[in-house]
Amino acid sequence: MEQMFIYLVPLLGIIGLIVMAIKSAWVTKQETGDENMMELAGYVAKGAMAFLKAEWKVLFYFVVIAAIILGWSGTLVENSSPIIAISFVIGAFLSAFAGYLGMNIATKANVRTTQAAKTSLKKALDVSFTGGTVMGLGVAGLAVLGMGSLFIVFYNLFVVSTGGDVNGAAMETALEVLAGFSLGAESIALFARVGGGIYTKAADVGADLVGKVEAGIPEDDVRNPATIADNVGDNVGDVAGMGADLFGSYVATILASMVLGREIVSADNFGGIAPVLLPLVIAGLGLMFSIVGTLFVKIAKDTDSVQVALNKGNWISILLTVAASYPLIMYMLPEGDLVLSRGGSISFTKMGVFGAVVIGLIVGALMSMITEYYTSMGKRPVNSIIKQSSTGHATNIIGGLSVGMESTVAPILVLAAGIYGSFLAAGLYGVAIAAAGMMATTAMQLAIDAFGPIADNAGGIAEMSGLPKEVRERTDILDAVGNTTAATGKGFAIASAALTALALFAAYVGIAGIDSIDIYKADVLAGLFVGAMIPFIFSSLAIAAVGRAAMDMVNEVRRQFKEIPGIMEYKAKPEYEKCVEISTKASIREMVAPGAIALLAPMIVGFAFGPEVLGGLLAGITVSGVLMGIFQNNAGGAWDNAKKSFEKGVEINGKMEYKGSDAHKASVTGDTVGDPFKDTSGPSMNILIKLTSIVALVIAPHISENGHGHAQADEDVVKKEIQVKISKEIVSVEELKID
């Protein structure tokens, strides 16, 4: 039974994909609306696919070149293998495929949500959330299936077939090759997130500045040439980009726990691999309970709270995962003390491991709640921005920046407490398993996140189709909640990135053959400062790229308004494809520089200055990146919902202000500034943090100080094995005495 347990993981991934297919078929069967709605939805789907094809063409060359280099490097050190190139390609392919699955269903669900909104808010929520569920289950299912299957292959190839030690060099090689899968996933995620973010925000900013501010027409007015590109952007950035992003996060988190689990000698019934296998099984069970949680996201009538329904489903999936983790950990891990030499040889028990899982889930829930508070309509932070909009554009910007900076305090304190608490519970393995627990319900988190862009697209189609006012009101309710859930999803992702980066960092230290990172050394301190700078230059490049692309978009929209007579009178159709082309070309061109920084910085520092300086670089990137990510995500989300609050009217100093007022125009400016914050540079921070750590882990054997990354680890393993054998003999003697 125990020997077959390893095959449970890919089976759970297959179940998730089967449920995804069933839900996808349900969405496809829903009504699509009239011919005009279908035509507009067709423009969006065609534009989204055009972008993906252009992006994939560039990434194909990157993947081929990177795979060749990785394959060659795998021949240079004994604890790697050329097979790492195959692992990398599979990870890259599944990451891109995860993004495609999400975008494909989103471009089908958007028009169906619009049609459903003609009937009721309840029906519109059912369609949009089911579309999001397809993406969530697809991403998590592919990750669990991919990681679980490859681990089985590499475990049998490098450990079982050679009779290798599960705590020694053989398992280290298996996990080093598996790290290639995570590297491929995170590399594609970075380009998809940055490229998609540049695309969507260039179109959004162009549509807002010329359409809403200059021409005075609604955001998704059919007369606006950039409106199709704007709706395409929601799919390629917030759906395809987010799908690849969380796929990479999910995989990196599991990998970090597995790498540290190898260093724990476990006298279990699974051949000693229980600490390595545990995070995979937790991920699989989290996928199952996410499916259960999605069943509870319902509202009975239109006056019910959509946010409450989403929170209910989320909490159910979290609580079920906690409940199931206890018997799982009690069953898989052995009795007595477990020891991980990394981080001071802290001993812990399986109850400590369960405590770390609980801490991780609590941290994830608290991060979501804090983010929801700072970005939700009706709460103090967003209301403060609304109030400051009454005195102009500048004070709106000041208010948003202040909210974003303030919003870093509580999440960092929660994160710090979570790191320390999980470390006390089970050492650095506890920190890693806490991240795995937090990411266990990724399918549910992503379903909640992805429904927002679908609802946003549905509102755009309703506006462009000239549907009755109540239809747009229903889609706006979903869209406003979607803005908040998108922000909470990004907060959740950045928190998991911090925990995962620490675990990857610990794994890197072991393989690189160093004991600590000493900041008293000038070169290490210099590396720390350079690392802290990287998230800033990365953000600068991403935001500047949005600015340049947006300028091109603004000029094109102005040209069409000027040169195509009859647009404003609905007598002529805008040239939507020109705006789609501008966003596509700009995003593909501009995504290269930020991506190159993330991939090359750790390699240059590692090979030029050694593993300890690279450790300083990683520490700087992690701390600076987490703060930048929280700040930008929350500031952008708060600005967005401050703008949306004017849709229904807000009271400022005893006077009601509505759409079109000076205060509303100021809020549009704030939202425009916040757009690249929350959809381009901000959410890219968590990928930057994890990608640089994974690159460091992959090159660690090549820059190891002792030239043999696992020499000391093997010696420690032998000592631990002797201790375990002695303890077993003592137990046997005691049993004989009892008899």
Automatic annotation (TrEMBL):
A Pfam family it matches: H_PPase
Enzyme Commission number(s) of this protein: 7.2.3.1
Coiled coil: none
Keywords: Cell membrane, Hydrolase, Ion transport, Magnesium, Membrane, Potassium, Sodium, Sodium transport, Translocase, Transmembrane, Transmembrane helix, Transport
Activity control, per UniProt: Requires K(+) for maximal activity.
Organism for this UniProt entry: Fontibacter flavus
Membrane topology: Multi-pass membrane protein
Cofactors required: Mg(2+)
Gene transcribed to yield this protein: hppA
Main location: membrane
Name of the featured protein: Putative K(+)-stimulated pyrophosphate-energized sodium pump
Superkingdom, taxonomy of origin: Bacteria
